What we know:
Layout: H1 3-13, H2 17-26, H3 31-40, H4 45-49, E1 56-63, E2 69-77, H5 80-83, H6 86-101, H7 114-130, H8 135-153, E3 159-160, E4 163-167, H9 168-179, E5 184-192, H10 201-212
Antiparallel strand pairs: 1-2, 2-5, 3-4
Amino acid sequence: MSINDIKSLRExxxxxxxxxxxxxxxxxxxxxxxxxxxxxxxxxxxxxxASRAATEGLVDCYIHGNGKVGVLIEVxxxxxxVAINEGFxxxxxxxxxxLVANKADFVNIEDIPEDVQERERSVQIERVVAEGKxxxxxxxxxxxxxxxxxxxxxxxEQEFFKDETLTVKQLIENSIAKIGENIKVRRFVRxxxxxxxxxxxxxxxxxVAKMTGGEA
Length: 216
């Protein structure tokens, strides 16, 4: 355990330094287990705030310098006061940049439809079998591959592009602890030049309208 571990745990949970030190001591220095330990005892402030309603926030957009990739994102917080906070606005901009740098299809793992997960699982099982592994073994190997796939297609599971020691989920947990309000990514749309040209133009307009709450 180091002072940096204690500081990191404090940033992610909002708990006091002594509580963080105790949590790490009780869990052999494992930060994830320490977070759960604090949550069980009601000490992790960020976790407690996660259940609170977040109905304010910002819609932000970012167009990459070459004009070939753009992102529209909505991030919610609890109050309009926080929505104009520079720290919150900086977080929203970083999330937009994250989506420019790393394509995602879903916000959370829970958002992936069951049929999409099963289709990916079937493909991965067949790939492992084709590599010469028995089907019984293949299913165990696929669990690891499914986690890796989820980390690619879900925004919250991706490594933060500015600091690969953090996931986007951990970045938001840190911001909750610092800002003092629940923060949630509600939705996003990512456009890449030439991608999805088979869509009708009215479908494209409807997608933007749905995101902005306007008319197509």
